[in-house]
């Protein structure tokens, strides 16, 4: 089991999650974060910290595609352990449906 980052992180990226993870397993894309499934120890601490409610345990149904996206991009995006300023328009994108199709970027973020 692991936790995965899902749709509502895209363009929100508040980064409250990265500071609480005891094993630093968040990786940063241009406009979202992912969790490395092989590094996550399933502690669950990050889930309630996410203001966008974007972090879910992979035991929830229909998360296979998100698990694959987290696994694939955690291998190529840089590690992030410190919170930075979220995008200025993050609030406007909170809860917008279908962000994966509309806004996902495969480009890496800055990392720490
Ligand atoms: S706190 Fe939630 S929305 Fe913010 S970066 Fe982490 S997973 Fe994404
Ligand atoms: S469940 Fe724990 S180990 Fe996994 S990403 Fe969240 S804080 Fe890190």
Specify Rg, calculated over alpha carbons. 12 Å
What coarse outline follows from CA principal-axis ratios? globular
Strand content: 5-15%
Give the second-level CATH assignment, the architecture. Answer: 2-Layer Sandwich
Work out the helix count. Answer: 4
Number of domains as seen in the coordinates: 1
- In round numbers, the mean pLDDT is 97
Spatial arrangement of strands, main beta sheet: 1-4
Q: Ends: how far apart?
A: 26 Å
Explain what the structure shows.
- The protein is an alpha+beta fold and 112 residues long.
- The chain has a single domain (3-82), classed as 2-Layer Sandwich (Alpha-Beta Plaits), CATH 3.30.70.20.
- It contains 4 helices and 4 strands, in the order βαβββααα.
- A two-stranded antiparallel sheet has the order 1-4.
- The longest helix has 11 residues, at 64-74.
- The chain starts with a strand and ends in a 9-residue tail after the last helix.
- One iron/sulfur cluster is lined by residues 3, 20-21, 23, 25, 35, 40-46.
- One iron/sulfur cluster (SF4) binds at residues 5, 9, 12-17, 33, 50, 52, 54-55.
- Residues 81-112 are annotated as: Disordered.
- This is Ferredoxin.
- Residues 1-30, 31-60 form the 4Fe-4S ferredoxin-type domain.
- Its cofactor is [4Fe-4S] cluster; [3Fe-4S] cluster.
